[in-house]
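Lecture 7 notes. Example A: sequence first, then its structure tokens.
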Amino acid sequence: MKKIIFATFLSVLATVSLFLQGRPLGIGFLSYVTVLLLLWAVVYMIWGWFEKTEAKTRKRDRIVFISFFTSILAVFIVGGIKTYLRQKASEPTEAYYREMFEDDWAIYNYGQTVNGKPCRAGTDINIDLDAVDRGLVGDVGTIILVLDTGIDRRITCLDKRINVAEVYDFYNNDMSIYDGYSSDYHGTFVASVIAKIAPDCTMMSAKFMEGDNGNVEDAKRALKMVEGSGVRIVNCSWTFEEYDEELYEMIKDMSDVLFVCAAGDDEKDLDQTPVYPAAYDCDNIISVMANDSQGNKYQYTGYGKNRVDISAPGVDVKVVFPENDISFVDGASAAAAFVSGTAALMASEDPDLSPKEIIDILLESSTRNDGLDNRCRGMLNVKEALRLVSERKGR
């Protein structure tokens, strides 16, 4: 019995030695087992030279067998404890998230003050903060077209370069999608918002505007070029007042593409005074208004009980302008970008989702809020939308 205890003690001592060397479970575990096997094989052979009786041989076998498997068990237990302690030590804390998103209430609103304005906790987009922190969300195969001004591809968002593929500059009729800060700030900040939500998805830039200037004909040219290219989502953070039948028909015919359209910033009731493409009656369009950090309607956003679907953050939204200039913006443009990013996450989770199904899930999962006063269905709720996608996929 003393030999069994002594051999077991040596086995555990060897395992603790590995623990103190900083080797957690799962790193070199097979090597541990191999070394132990060889060690006990040697012990077994050497011991066999000195054991001459059958009784002593059986006793030796028991000692070696018990000690070896005790060693294996010790590797599991001690390594498991170390892995657990490492994970606990590396888990982000509430204080960490509060510091990280102190001025980014749209991602995490814990009741802080942003730009001198008090926020109401819980009116953020309700996204998985750990996923945002690690930047491991979305799929590179999910393509979002930013139909807007150009984009400064050099910017970083949450310490990561945004993933942008160039298409064409339909405004200047050349291949350069970035011509300067003042001409391409809008598309750049829109892309930065999308990248916060779905950093691993691919964005394509089709430039048809510079600054505040652009026309519907160039927008239609851009859509014709990307049709059939694999684009899943088109972000339209702009509006035209005039109804255009050809644009309507183009969007309707691209039935496998989701169009996320801003409701504008002219304080219009789109039920009475529509703007386009947000007010087009198409099953693959979701129109987006803006709310503030209190969960109330942004003062100047377009709205409409029947023609506007969902609300997302659009006041004091932290964005990245060209040349990595960090600032804040107001308006439905940013709100639409949040919805586009969320739709990209949903399409990454379940590529079989149709635009209509994505819209239905976004609306079903949205958070009802009296502050919006029935001007749309509710506020964007990312975590609930992804839960419904997973639930549907598992059926």
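Example B, a different protein, same format:
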Amino acid sequence: MKPHGIETRLRVFEHQALYLGQTYEGGVFQQHHLDALCAYHQRTHGKYYQLVHKGVKFSHYVGVIQVGGLLLEILPKTAAQNNGYSNWQSVLLPMLEICHQIKVEAINSAKVGLSFYSLLEVYVRLYLEEVHQLLAQDLLRMYERQAQNERVLKGRLEQTKQLQKNHFTAQYFYCQSFSFQYDNTLNRILLATLYSILSMRLHPNLMEQCQELISKFPSKIRYQAFQISDFNRISSNRNTSRFHYALQLAEVILRARGGSIQAGRYPLTALLFDMNVLFEEYVFQRLRRLRVEGWQVERQVQKPFWRRRKLRPDIILQKGTRTLVLDTKWKILITGQPTMDDLRQLFVYAKYFNAKKAIIVYPFAASTTAQVNEAFIPYTSQEEKINCQTIVAPLFKNGQLNANFANELISLITD
């Protein structure tokens, strides 16, 4: 079932191209779809996809783009390798959970199946459920400063304003006081996010839930548009801790909506993740949680290289004086050999971080014989050897993310 207002819902994989008039999963790619994506392309400077002859080609970003009446779901290529379109959530959503981007357990406990929802709708539904719980517990009330005319003296009299505003109306007092109320920045952000959801083209059930939640908000909470920077104005303390997850989701949704961004006459919503960054973070988080005895796992450790430029490998593993350098690559290992650029990068990392082994971790390979473990050729007879190892990470098992991923990866690395 398509969300309300969505004419076409297409599913593609990262790095795939869409061509005018061709049929894809979900429908036909038409001229007005291409026009909408061309307009959005100018706004983003080609960050998420490139324009090709009568079509578009996507990059390594995955997620959802909704522009005009077109909903595009861009899935990780692992889905093409292992699961196909129908089970994309078995790959992407658990990765987002491990990387602290989403609470998958909240999705798994829901009664509605995930195949019914796009990734954007998953975030929206989680947000609506979280706000529903917060309303049941009562929203945050805070002391807010207010300055206005009063018929009785309340708080502190603002003498300058009193003379300016009440010189001819002595029956009023211009006072500054504090009141314990719902109208505060945090609640206004929650409400603004609900109104932002109403402006999207989502499933009618979600829109009905959203309208119902808006009606339950206290009437004295002012609606106003927010910038992402406004989230920094919310102080983190024990009173606001229960709102933390709702605010995280609100920020994702407001970023996805893009505020006032419009692709010409086409309203725009985009929720996209860089798979290079997500894969790196996933490998790091799984290794960090494993806590193998004696091994320390660090990420993005940097050393000066040239002028203000620094070297920053993805992951460093250390055990006593032994150091391993890991570099993650979200791409298919085709021939079993890394590119020359990757080899040069690994060699420099190993030299600067005094590592005896430098490892490239791939998510999958074109063949089972793609993994190698060979030493760089030393340029002097006195130089110690540095091994270069390519590993295809045991990312999947039985069509799902491998629950024993970290143990199997460590055993491959430390052999």
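Note on Example B: Residues 105-116, 259-265 have pLDDT under 50 and may be disordered. The longest helix spans residues 119-137.
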